[in-house]
Amino acid sequence: DAGVTQSPTHLIKTRGQQVTLRCSPKSGHDTVSWYQQALGQGPQFIFQYYEEEERQRGNFPDRFSGHQFPNYSSELNVNALLLGDSALYLCASSLDSGAGADTQYFGPGTRLTVL
Amino acid sequence: QKEVEQNSGPLSVPEGAIASLNCTYSDRGSQSFFWYRQYSGKSPELIMSIYSNGDKEDGRFTAHLNKASQYVSLLIRDSQPSDSATYLCAVNRSWGKLQFGAGTQVVVTP
């Protein structure tokens, strides 16, 4: 049973560039949430996708956008990169229970460095 | 006041002893609570979830929830060097929007 996968593992970009990160959820899961984790901090919720729609969003600017595909995989896009966007980006998958997606399992993450 | 608070540590625990981790949260409407373990440079790994007041045991781990006090804890019994990691407390605020604490670093010393 494949777990949550993310690509790429590492990425180096320069300020102002755009980046796309990808996530495939655990088999049987239908909900994908994205988190940003800066060094020494806990993960911060970016947004959540369910049924190809953004269901919830955290306090992140519009430079952060996403998409969910019919096969439940998801992308996170960040435009106009800033130095402060350097972080570990985590994808978490879960199964919607009808009362929302609850127990979340994390992928290995993508380490983004912005120079 | 932070929405989810944890002692940052490091919490130094002798091998074989009990590690006690605490977490408080501010949103009284929160319904589900999670503990994750994160090794340095790795992603969070789910240890346990708890939904009802009281204790929940899974192997060497015991989670405790007190919604009236807005408090969650995790005990690690018979601590091993492999338990050395950062432990993250997470609170489900609504529909799977997890709010995390900054984590408590645990160091198990031989």
Compact summary:
Chain A is mainly β and 115 residues long. Chain A has strands spanning 5-7, 10-13, 19-24, 31-37, 44-50, 53-57, 64-68, 74-78, 87-94, 105-106, 110-114.
Folded structure, characterized:
The complex is a heterodimer of chains A (115) and B (110). Chain A is an all-beta fold. Chain A has no helices and eleven strands. Chain A is globular and about 40 Å long. Chain B is mainly beta. Chain B is built from no helices and eleven strands. In chain B, the strands form two sheets. In chain B, strands 2, 4, 5, 9, 10 and 11 form a six-stranded mixed sheet that branches. In chain B, a hairpin with a 4-residue loop joins strand 7 and strand 8. The model of chain B has no long low-confidence stretch (mean pLDDT 95). Chains A and B meet through strand 4, strand 5, strand 9 and strand 10 of A and strand 4, strand 5, strand 9 and strand 10 of B.
Largest sheet of chain A: 7 strands, mixed
Number of helices of chain A: 0
Q: Give the rounded overall mean pLDDT of chain A.
A: 95
Count up the helices of chain B: 0
Order of helices and strands of chain A: EEEEEEEEEEE
Helical residues, percent of chain A: under 10%
Strand content of chain B: over 45%
Gap between N and C termini of chain B: 36 Å
What class do helices, strands and sheet pairing of chain A give? mainly beta
* Rg of chain B computed from alpha carbons, rounded to a whole number of angstroms: 13 Å
Class per helix and strand makeup of chain B? mainly beta
Low-confidence stretches of chain A: none
Low-confidence stretches of chain B: none
Radius of gyration of chain A over alpha carbons?
13 Å
What is the strand content of chain A?
A: over 45%
The largest sheet of chain B is: 6 strands, mixed
Overall shape of chain A? globular
Mean of all residue-level pLDDT scores of chain B: 95
Instruction: Say what oligomer this is.
Output: heterodimer
